[in-house]
TrEMBL record, chain A:
NCBIfam families: PhnE
Coarse class of the protein's main subcellular location: membrane
Sequence ranges assigned to domain ABC transmembrane type-1 in this UniProt record: 87-272
Keywords for this protein: Cell membrane, Membrane, Transmembrane, Transmembrane helix, Transport
Species per Swiss-Prot/TrEMBL record: Thioclava marina
Lineage of the species this protein comes from: Bacteria, Pseudomonadati, Pseudomonadota, Alphaproteobacteria, Rhodobacterales
Name assigned to this protein: Phosphonate ABC transporter, permease protein PhnE
InterPro entries for this protein: MetI-like (IPR000515), MetI-like_sf (IPR035906), PhnE/PtxC (IPR005769)
TrEMBL record, chain B:
Gene3D superfamilies: P-loop containing nucleotide triphosphate hydrolases
Protein source organism: Thioclava marina
Pfam family, one: ABC_tran
Keyword terms, alphabetized: ATP-binding, Cell membrane, Membrane, Nucleotide-binding, Translocase, Transport
The keyword Endoplasmic reticulum is assigned to this record: no
Record-linked CDD domains: ABC_PhnC_transporter
Protein name: Phosphonate ABC transporter ATP-binding protein
Highest taxon of the lineage: Bacteria
Transmembrane region(s): none
Gene Ontology molecular-function annotations: ATP binding
NCBIfam families: ABC_phnC (TIGR02315)
InterPro entries: AAA+_ATPase (IPR003593), ABC_transporter-like_ATP-bd (IPR003439), ABC_transporter-like_CS (IPR017871), ABC_transpr_PhnC (IPR012693), MetN_ABC_transporter-like (IPR050086), P-loop_NTPase (IPR027417)
Location of the ABC transporter domain: 3-246
């Protein structure tokens, strides 16, 4: 009765999120490849040949990077240590923007859910607002904000938080739509305020599913935060860009940064998968108090 | 303590769920509202608690128009006018004592709600009320782990926590088995008598109305068609209220003969509708 089985629409969104996660991975890879390719073009501008002639260099370049990194393998541990603060900055940007975006998403979701909204007539307004937030690509928002506010983590945070607000708001609202309204009505009859009705009557029902979506979003936001580093938002993305632009002589740094980034993403994925599995199982088995 | 309806109507679309009702209820007592499904019983009760708004008319409590209240005043009124629901409407994942303490929410600040800060005195009072209803040992269990009858008593405990002037009960026993139905009705009746409160209950069966009420209000198509003592509820009056719903009146009147045993009697009464 109190279970919120993900409806098929929610499952669709979940799949969409997963696809998006993959897309970010692909973009990260594509940027990496593009940077390498452009470096390659610059370096070999003099004797530029045909496409197929040059194709082998596409593979030569990573080989070049790795051979240099292997040659300077003693540097790698030091470099890993050196880039750790940047990694933490990237994670911070992701965490703060997920948190801010998530809290705003809760408010937006409740205000745009039938049966729960404080102003039922304004539901379409909040829904459209979330659509717009989702539709704006983070990188565009970040570039505009960087132009206005200058380079730094704040534009990245704002951009990611805005997107998170729209994306999580929609998912949160779909979960809340399936919430049992009887406790809310019961609390309302005692004179509880809207906030109290939501906090006591709705939150315990939706918390497991909401947390699960928020964790998934955190994973996505780590990738987004790394990518935004390229356009000047700081963090490890920025270091990667600098190292790549420097070219030969810094390839050990490139490898170290990638190692850090991939290890982090794999670790976070692993732990959040487990946490989400537990959250959703806990919600079904109704074990423990929320 | 006086609750007065003055030409109260509630319209859904083009249909009047409650149609120009005027009534006056004075002092403590157990008032039953009966009528077939769709007669407007729930709509009437929910307007008193302000869970639903009236389309026109006035509802006065001690001469103050409660339909005109808003914001803080409305919440204060709701705190004084507790409601018990057919489906209990508890927070299922929270423990029983917390559910009882929710009766205080209308008088609590947002901050204390946020951190779930109940004073020891409040908690003791909640446990005392649970004890009075015979379910003190369930206090730490999750509400959803209790039987229907126990959950409804938790809901009554929540209502008592509000220390209300009026207790409204919308078909409090309609989803309970006969045994539990009797336990819950007995509890409501005892509270009404011992505390001198006004209880207004929508009841599904004539039999229950006759057994527990001091006054019965019969509704049909949104209008009050009977208002009197339970002993005035003759078969003819029942037919007025329930109309062509013959199966109902027969099930209800057959119990009037009194030839049936207690359990069977309840079972027959529950057959109605
Ligand atoms: N929210 C609503 N929207 C539209 N119509 C409604 C709404 N609530 C009630 N009604 C209508 O108003 C009429 C009275 O409903 P109400 O729930 O008050 O009846 P009731 O006497 O409580 O019936 P029951 O015994 O089935 O609970 C019904 O015809 C119902 O269809
Ligand atoms: Mg009803």
């Amino acid at each position: 009765m109190t279970d919120i089985a993900p409806p098929s629409a929610t499952a669709e969104d979940y799949l969409a999120q997963t696809r998006r996660k993959r897309l970010y991975g692909a973009i990260l890879l594509a940027i990496f490849v593009a940077m390498m390719a452009s470096g390659f073009r610059l370096a070999d501008a003099r004797n530029a040949g045909g496409f197929f002639e040059g194709l082998h260099r596409f593979f030569d370049f990573p080989a070049e990077i790795f051979s240099e990194a292997i040659a300077k393998w003693q540097n790698i541990p030091g470099l890993l240590w050196r880039y750790l603060p940047s990694l933490i900055e990237t994670l911070n940007i992701a965490a703060v923007s997920t948190l801010i975006g998530g809290i705003a998403a809760i408010v937006l979701a409740l205000l745009s859910t039938r049966g729960l909204s404080l102003w039922p007539r304004a539901i379409p307004v909040f829904r459209r607002a979330m659509d717009v937030m989702r539709a704006l690509p983070e990188i565009v928002v970040a570039l505009v904000l960087i132009f206005l506010l200058g380079v730094g983590p704040v534009p990245a945070m704002a951009a990611i938080a805005l997107h998170t607000m729209g994306a999580l708001g929609k998912l949160f609202s779909e979960v809340a739509e399936n919430a049992d309204l009887k406790p809310v009505e019961g609390l309302g009859s005692t004179g509880a305020s809207w906030f109290q009705q939501m906090w006591v009557g709705v939150l315990p029902q939706v918390a497991p599913n909401w947390s699960s979506y928020a964790l998934l979003r955190f994973e996505i936001n780590i990738r987004a935060s790394a990518i935004l580093g390229f356009v000047g938002a700081g963090g490890i993305g920025y270091d990667l860009k600098t190292a790549l632009q420097w070219g030969q002589g810094r390839y050990d740094a490139v490898v170290a940064i990638f190692a850090l980034l991939f290890a982090t993403i794999i670790l976070v994925d692993h732990f959040s998968d487990r946490a989400r599995a537990r959250l959703v199982r806990g919600a079904t088995a109704k074990e423990g108090r929320i | 303590m006086r609750l007065e309806f003055r030409h109260v109507s509630k319209v859904f679309g083009s249909k009047a769920a409650v149609d120009n009702v005027s009534l006056s209820i004075e002092g403590a007592g157990f008032i039953g509202v009966i009528g077939r499904s769709g007669a407007g019983k729930s709509t009437l009760l929910r307007m008193i608690n302000r869970l639903g708004d009236a389309s026109s008319g006035q509802i006065l409590f001690d001469d103050a128009d409660i339909l005109a209240l808003s914001g803080r005043d409305k919440r204060d009124w709701q705190a004084r006018c507790a409601m018990v629901f057919q489906q209990f409407n508890l927070v299922p994942r929270m423990d029983v004592a917390s559910n009882v303490l929710h009766g205080l929410l209308g008088r609590r600040s947002t901050l204390s709600t946020l951190f779930n800060l109940w004073s020891e005195a409040d908690i003791r009072r909640a446990l005392g009320i649970l004890d009075r209803l015979g379910i003190a040992e369930q206090a730490a269990k999750r509400a959803e782990a209790l039987s229907g009858g126990q959950q409804q008593r938790v809901a009554i405990a929540r209502a008592l926590m509000q220390d209300p002037a009026i207790i409204l009960a919308d078909e409090p026993i309609a989803s309970l088995d006969p045994m539990n139905a009797q336990v819950v009705m007995d509890a409501l009746k005892r509270i009404q008598v011992e505390d001198g409160r006004m209880v207004i209950a929508n009841l599904h069966t004539l039999d229950t109305a006759r057994r527990y009420c001091d006054r019965v209000i019969g509704m049909r198509d949104g209008r009050v068609v009977f208002d009197g003592r339970p002993d005035q509820l003759t078969t003819g009056v029942a037919r007025d209220i329930y109309g062509a719903d013959a199966s109902f009146s027969e099930a209800a009147t057959s119990t009037e003969i009194g030839a049936l045993g207690d359990d069977q009697e309840y079972a027959a009464a529950m057959l109605g509708d």
